[in-house]
Amino acid sequence: MKDTLMSDPVFLEMREIAQRLDEANLAYHRDDTPIISDAEYDALKARLLDLEALHPELKDTDSPTGKVGAPVAAGFGKITHKIPMLSLGNAFVEGDVARFVAQVRAVSRDAMITAEPKIDGLSLALRYENGALVSAATRGDGAVGEDVTANARTIGDIPQQLTGAPSVLEVRGEVFMSHVDFEALNARAAKNGTKTFANPRNAAAGSMRQLDARITAERKLSFFAYAWGDMSEHLGATQSESIARLGELGFRVNPLMRLTLSSGEVGKSLVTQLVDYHQEVAHARAELGYDIDGIVYKVDDIATQIALGFRSTTPRWAVAHKFAAERAWTRLEAIEIQVGRTGVLSPVARLTPVTVGGVVVSNATLHNHDYIAGRDSAGNPIRGGNDLRVGDRVEIYRAGDVIPKVGGVDLSARPKTAFPFAFPSSCPECASPIVRDGSSQRCTGGLACPAQGKERLKHLVSRDAFDIDGFGDTMVDTFWSDDALPLRQPVDIFTLPARDEELARNEAPGSNRSLATRAGWGPSSANKLVLGIEAARSVPLDRMIFGLGIRHIGSTTASLVARTFIDWDSFLAAAIAVAEGSAPQAARFRAIDGIGDAVIGALRETFMPGPERNAIEALADELDIQSISAPSTADSSVAGLTVVFTGTLIQMTRSEAKKQAEDLGAKVAGSVSKNTDILIAGPGAGSKADKAAALGVKVIDEAAWLEMIA
């Protein structure tokens, strides 16, 4: 029987999903370190539920679809819930809400429903006896929770003593952290060099699970009460009355809770009322000051709740209408222009912080002038042709882990003081003229522009360029405006050791300006930096060309150019000739795969007489630029082929594999296209493998590749 199951693809899929869900439950509920997004978790659980419904004979008795939360973490005492703390069923679209309403109406035709924000925090049960708080427990696995009583006592929203309450009252709600307190906590952590949190939910849950309550007390937490468990007498006949009673007892309850009216009173169906409320709160989400991930609908009448009853892990009388996990509405507070390495002006949206897909988002890319104006690069309307203005309410989305983007704008919420955005006509960093470059605007200042200068230095020291040990972006920022050892030109990096040595020789006692005498440095770290710079003086031609940061010349094109010209002097002479208008040399560059008018134009701009060419020649004088050997293709089986590597390589690094392929005359590309001959796919290959299969590109593994080039 076991052998049969192990060959059943449905059983294997169910087992794999169950394992992923169990791991995700532990990471989220016990360890406060989510490993997948809420959307991915919901999709996996929905898939497993579907498979279990279709194949009940394959359902595991320990399936995660029948569990709530996760077991209690080590280090905490245990508290058994007298009434289990269940989770909620989910609704994602209007049809799901309609099914929930139909289920309720089958029991009660005139049932009213409450709607309230679903707080994204940590569920907590507070037990009061004779008005005194005696215990506080997390949800745990729904039956047994962690004893966090000492931590709960540090939260200002949680009363220590109740007056006029039932003799036994268990109040349930959510511990959360406001956006303001979250930002303050992360700012303190960053200043102290300790762990920062990805979002307020993780911060709140991590704070409640401190074994030392003094740490919890240092982190400002909040609490909303929204339910109850074990109690000696009812708080009211309805959900809304009971919540109001909790407010009277001193608990903080959500003021946004709303009770639906009968359809005749508002002219809207019950489903429409609920969906409208869902959209209304979604739009105001970023301005609440705390995170929510949906709306909870509950039958108001307690007797009807009892009649509807429970499933194994969820009540039938309540449902959580989730927000789209990768989308949220917030306010566009400002549009700032950033100048990149090649001079391209990139507008960035500064947003009222909002959590999107489990990450707090405060910035989003706005691409270019056309995008802000409501057009794509071809002039076609986007967002219905509506422009973006400071003060607008905008929809933010994240596709995977990419930079957040603006998906839409709510014109009904546009302030009267919002005016069309005026793109600058001169560079905000250096005041040089701005020119149109395709769909972008670009500063013409070159290295004279401080923003371009700094970004080019960061590019020069990057991994695929000079890869200077210990010299990254932070180091560039540190020395960019240093009064004693400033870096403003590429050559300044390689004159730094000599300048530091001279500074140390002439340094007055106690001035602490040389590297070895600075706070946080010392002789060892100073020597390490100098050794890294000296080692980088010897640089292969392809890395030198890439490191110059010439527009449109990436690492692959730089490698092809280097293999064409072989040595620095030949490349420099040809590039200068192109800048002077030499048609034969321009044709020589154009003969290289991937080079066209855009690259020729960039070469002319870079190597024409002026500051940029002077900076390049000064840098070259400090270096030993190694020539590139022509690829040996006589016995190569891959010469002339275009190959792409993806996934994890075992026998070598990606850089080693690329160099080896190029030495054999192959062209290594970064993406799969119809021109790709072979895709070498290691473990973890994703979309590239899918695209190769769709295009009919040959796909082999690393072992087959090594055998091919042996």
From TrEMBL:
Pfam families: BRCT, DNA_ligase_aden, OB_DNA_ligase
Biological process per Gene Ontology, one example term: DNA repair
Cofactor: Mg(2+); Mn(2+)
InterPro entries xref list: BRCT_dom (IPR001357), BRCT_dom_sf (IPR036420), DNA_ligase (IPR001679), DNA_ligase_AS (IPR018239), DNA_ligase_CS (IPR033136), DNAligase_adenylation (IPR013839), DNAligase_N (IPR013840), NA-bd_OB-fold (IPR012340)
List of residues binding Zn(2+): 427, 430, 449
Listed SUPFAM superfamilies: BRCT domain, DNA ligase/mRNA capping enzyme, catalytic domain, Nucleic acid-binding proteins, RuvA domain 2-like
Binding site for NAD(+): 38-42, 87-88, 116, 139, 174, 298, 322
Keyword flag Zinc: yes
Reactions accelerated catalytically: NAD(+) + (deoxyribonucleotide)n-3'-hydroxyl + 5'-phospho-(deoxyribonucleotide)m = (deoxyribonucleotide)n+m + AMP + beta-nicotinamide D-nucleotide
Positions of the catalytic residues: 118
Family named by the database record: Belongs to the NAD-dependent DNA ligase family. LigA subfamily.
Protein's name according to its UniProt entry: DNA ligase
Organism: Sulfitobacter litoralis
